[in-house]
Amino acid sequence: MAYSRYLSALFGLVFGVLFAASGAQAAPYAAMVMDARTGDVLHSRNADTRLHPASLTKMMTLYIAFEAVRLGEISMDSMVTISQNAAAEPPSKLGLRAGQQIRLRYLVRAAAVRSANDAATAIGEAIEGSEAAFSRRMNRTAEALGMTRTTFRNAHGLTQEGHLSTARDMTILGRRMVYDYPQYYNLFSRLSTDAGVATVRNTNRAFLAAYRGADGIKTGYTRAAGFNLVASAERNNIRVIATVFGGQSTAWRNQRVMELLDMGFARAPARAELQLAGFPVYTGSSASGPSGDYAGGPAARTLRPSGIVTRSLIPQPRPSRTAPRSDTLLAAIDNAVQEALAAPVASAAAASPERPAEAVRVDAAPSPELATAPATELAPEEALLPSQRPVELAAALMENALPERPEIVTRATSSGERLFAISLGRYPTQNTAERLLLQTALSETLLQQALRHVTQRQGRI
């Protein structure tokens, strides 16, 4: 590894000398190293100097694409029609044609892995309708993320007046990409991927193969910007992000980023609590960016409801002219239950003289004391229904307009609880019986939580 590092550094030095000798203007250099877990800066140089970000811009394009999918504005399987504007973008590109339709997921892959300019423009137009509108959203998102010295003019990062950022802001964006959308972050570590119309190779594959723990994220190059890179690596649960602006060559840039990451791992604490800021919050419609010339943005997006029911509420009784007399019915039921239980308890006491009979009261919701009381041992033939229904119960049920007088059935459970059931009668169809059960539950709040059951006997429900 040390030998390969030496060769890489030597190659970068030689290439840098040749680059300077060719008469090309070297881009200003800036760098930053950050502990990704906490956001603490471990090293910086010219980190707040506004420079050309080149294709590092596509990190913001992809961040907004992931945000739009999360908010339901678009899906990864949405078909995108390629405009003439997108198809005309200069390389690097996927080779899309005007009028062609392609899924958003393939555009995302092409922008992340191949750094395709036509794919980036198509993403912006698919989400906001035009590249200008998408640029305004990019600036608004940058402001919400704390990228205070960044102004975007396009979705791809090709050199344009006023399209500027800083090493600090791009490091912040790289960190948010890692933690805000981890389900998509693996895109940046793919050495190659299917982009629908072609298989594309990663522009950052040399760095990913050379540095242990590296898993992304984005390269960038234009003549005005030089060779840029935001890179992230993780070792022993420590994640570090390094950014370089103005590299002299690909090899020189990669070597410098490796050195910065080494510095970051050496300075970062072994243990640190992960500090996450959450998704950006958009407020108001103030101008975004340091120039103040981009206003608006997605201050209030319209979300599409999923239609998924998250909880089921108990139906409320419908208003009626004659409200059911719940107190009368409950009193009648309670008295009937006590009378029904008194006979078998007395019988059991007579059969066992050595055990005195206990007075037992059964409520619709048994008390904790009753739940722990020992069960009275009754023979099955002794737990019989009362031979005659109480007059009070019949009168109460008639007042509630029930089709037939209910029967009260009591059982002694193995846990000692005393429960009761109400039979509402026999009916010709199951639908009629179930409808009556529901109507009874709606009209009587005490029975709303009770179990409802329909039993078929001798051809009747």
By secondary-structure content and strand pairing, the structural class works out as: alpha+beta
Quaternary form: single chain
Q: Quickly name the level 1 CATH class of the largest domain.
A: Alpha Beta
The CATH topology of the largest domain is Beta-lactamase
Element pattern in H and E = HEEHEHEHHHHHEEHEEEHHHHEEH
Helix content: 25-40%
Question: How many beta strands in the DSSP annotation?
Answer: 11
The radius of gyration computed from the alpha-carbon positions, rounded to a whole number of angstroms, is: 37 Å
Per the principal axes of the C-alpha atoms, what is the gross shape? elongated
CATH architecture of the largest domain: 3-Layer(aba) Sandwich
So how many helices?
Answer: 14
Describe the fold and architecture.
- The relative contact order is 0.11.
- The N terminus is likely disordered.
- Strands 2-1-9-8-7 form a 5-stranded antiparallel sheet, with helices on both faces.
- The chain folds into 2 domains: 266 residues, DD-peptidase/beta-lactamase superfamily (Beta-lactamase); 122 residues, no CATH class.
- A hairpin with a 4-residue loop joins strand 1 and strand 2.
- Helix 2 packs parallel to helix 5 and helix 5 packs across helix 6.
- The chain has 14 helices and 11 strands.
- It is elongated and about 100 Å long.
- By secondary structure, the chain is of the alpha+beta class.
- The N and C termini lie far apart (81 Å).
